[in-house]
# Entry
Amino acid sequence: MFKLSSEGEAFVQKELKRYETKRSAIIPCLYKVQEENDGWVSPEAVEYLSGLMDLPSAWINEVLKFYTMFNQKPIGKLHVQVCCNISCAMNGGRELANHLNKEFNIKDGEISADGNVTISRAECLGSCGTAPMMQVNDNYYEDLTPESAVKTIKGLM
Ligand code: FES
# Structure
């Protein structure tokens, strides 16, 4: 049964008071749930948050399913998001993602056998001038080659 830590619950209460409507606090509260639930938001966690925030779970699910920064299934320790939008695609972003799939022997969204890596393809991450790029957890890595991307990911394991 998922439950936030007491610090996490205090965060939710603070966020609920911060905005004019409780609904506006859903994004920061989902971030907190994801942080405390190994990087993803389970259906059980949505129900828990719905009770804690006193909001319909459908409202929380709407936000969860719209934004790609929230994961709806378990992920590896390192969530590698490779941008495949226009600037990155023109500079080898799709080939980079394919290379990482092969290197770590996983399809998009899967977890590597050692539990370390999940690869996703992302829309523009706002770093077009240094394409191709990837986001690994909260950090950006830019001007990548297939080799430098692999080296970076292995260095984070
Ligand atoms: S297109 Fe890749 S960061 Fe913008």
